[in-house]
Specification:
six-stranded mixed sheet; alpha+beta; about 40% helix; Nuclear Transport Factor 2, Chain: A; about 160 residues
Length: about 160
């Protein structure tokens, strides 16, 4: 029986190495980036249309969503309520100017990290950074993690710290 283990292990290594080469050969990073960009554009259009159902369709059911406040740590149900209420508020300005966008697709093409930095009316002069993790589910890119953070310039940190004391 022990004599069978070594050939089985060698066979599994050969099969596994062949599978990774096949996956790598069929993966096109630029196409995946274009798909993620298209998804982001569709999400922005849904936000601008204030269509909560369309927006929420881009988020996985088991996702984790974090806001700028330490208490803003939501599952999909809580995040859905917040998004629905926010989009129903007609006084809220939905226009954001994205100053920097970075998309990093994983080597297997099945996930991506998206970082967007923007200026908003509610946070000026401090920029906002939205970091999202997208996964490919049934050929659709969906967000399973998102975190929004204020990103002040380092030189302004002492002033901010003094202001909140």
């Amino acid at each position: 029986m022990k004599k069978i283990y070594l050939p089985m292990i060698v066979a599994m290594i050969i099969v596994a190495s062949g599978l990774s080469k096949t996956m790598a050969a069929t993966f096109d990073r630029e196409s995946a980036k274009a798909e993620v960009t298209k998804t982001l554009d569709e999400m922005k259009a849904a936000y601008m249309a204030r269509d909560a159902d369309a927006v929420l369709a881009f988020y996985t059911e088991d996702g984790l969503f974090c806001g700028t406040d330490p208490t803003e740590f939501w599952d999909k149900a809580a995040y859905s309520k917040m998004i629905t209420d926010m989009l129903a508020d007609k006084t809220m300005n939905m226009n954001m100017q994205i100053d920097k966008l970075e998309i990093r697709v994983a080597k297997d093409g099945m996930s991506a990290i998206v970082i967007g930095q923007s200026t908003t009316d509610w946070s000026k002069p401090i920029m906002v950074r939205n970091t999202s993790h997208l996964v490919k589910v049934n050929d659709k890119w969906m967000i399973d993690f998102m975190s929004v953070a204020l990103i002040p310039d380092n030189k302004d940190l002492p002033k901010i710290t003094a202001a909140v004391k």
